[in-house]
Structure formats: C-alpha cells, structure tokens
Write a structure and sequence with these properties.
Radius of gyration: 25 Å
Shape: globular
CATH topology of the largest domain: Beta-Lactamase
Number of domains: 2
CATH architecture of the largest domain: 2-Layer Sandwich
Strand content: 15-25%
Distance between the termini: 64 Å
Largest sheet: 5 strands, antiparallel
Structural class: alpha+beta
Order of helices and strands: HHHEEHEEEHH
Number of strands: 5
Number of helices: 6
C-alpha cells in the first residue's frame, strides 16, 4: 500500500512540475502583437514627443522661419535614425495659421494657409486636448488627422497637425476608421 501511495504522489508531483514548466515556457514565448490601434498610438505619441518640444519656442514666438528650420531638422534626424515620420506634418499658430509644414519641399516658400475655420483646429485650441478627424482631399484620398495642442503654462501656443493616409495605415497596421476613432491619444 505504501508503494501505491508513493506512485500516486510521484505522478502528481510530475504533473505539477510539467504544468509549471509549461507555464514558464508560455511566459517566455513572444506575445502576440497588440491591436492595430496600439501600434498607431505608439507612432503618434513618438512623433509628438519628438516634435512638440522642439517646435514650441518657434510657435510661442510665432516665428515661421524658426518653426520651419526646426521641423526640417527634426525630420532629417528622424530619417537618419531610420525612423522617418510616416505622415504629413504641419505646425499652426494660436490662430490656426500655418507656421511650417513638412509636406512641402525644402526651400519652397511656405504658404501661410488659414485653418481657423476648421472645427477640428478650433476645438483643439479651445479644449487644449488632442483631436482626431477623418478628412478627404479633392482627389478623394482619405486622411486621418491628429491635431495636438502645443501648450505652455496652460495656454495653447499653437498646434502640431499630423495627417496620415488612411490607406497607408490600413496597409501598415490594419487600422480601420473605427479603430482610428477609438484610439486614446491623451496618454
């Protein structure tokens, strides 16, 4: 009888040890990628962290030349580091007027476009929160736009606008419009 009990205890111990080893292996296995929104969120927050502090002084002083130079430098540094920005980038002043844009060729004169009538621009300036929207170009290209307030001492000095091609985000991340609209970017 003693041998039967020992055999059962050894079998139970072996089963527990096997389960323990399997759980360790499962913990070491690479995790499955998060939802498409997580990858997009990381890209937007990385762009914000890279660009917002660097353009803040130029935006606060409302200096288009300084804003453009800083934006061009940041884009060049990002490309050199192998992490280029995959979006159009525009910097607006506190009235919604263009200060700089990375969507034009270097050396090309900046067009001081007025976006003050765009609801998304005014909402971001007023609420000092990130605002997202879907926009269409004249050629029917769909853009997902993220408008990031540049806030200093509680005041919105201007905006950092990131415009992503919807088809590119779908190809790179599998991001749908619904997922784009649900992504929390306030973190």
């Amino acid at each position: 009888m003693h041998d039967a009990t020992s055999g059962r205890l050894a079998g139970t111990a072996m089963g527990v040890a096997l389960l323990f080893c399997m759980s360790l292996l499962a913990g070491c296995a690479p995790s499955s990628p998060g939802p498409p929104g997580d990858a997009f969120r990381k890209e937007v927050l990385a762009a914000r962290e890279s660009l917002a502090p660097s353009v803040m002084d130029a935006v606060a002083s409302r200096d288009p030349r300084a804003a453009r130079k800083t934006l061009e430098q940041q884009c060049a540094l990002s490309r050199e580091a192998g992490r280029p920005f995959f979006c159009g980038i525009t910097v607006l002043d506190h009235h919604g007027i263009t200060l700089a844009s990375a969507t034009i060729s270097p050396g090309e004169p900046i067009k001081r476009l007025d976006y003050s009538r765009y609801e998304i621009v005014m909402k971001a300036l007023k609420e000092r929160k990130i605002v997202k929207a879907k926009l269409y170009l004249q050629d029917r290209t769909t853009l997902y736009v993220v408008v990031i307030p540049l806030v200093r001492q509680g005041e919105a000095q201007g905006l950092l606008v990131l415009a992503f091609d919807a088809a590119d985000l779908r190809d790179r991340f599998g991001l749908t419009e619904e997922e784009f609209l649900r992504v929390d970017l306030d973190g």
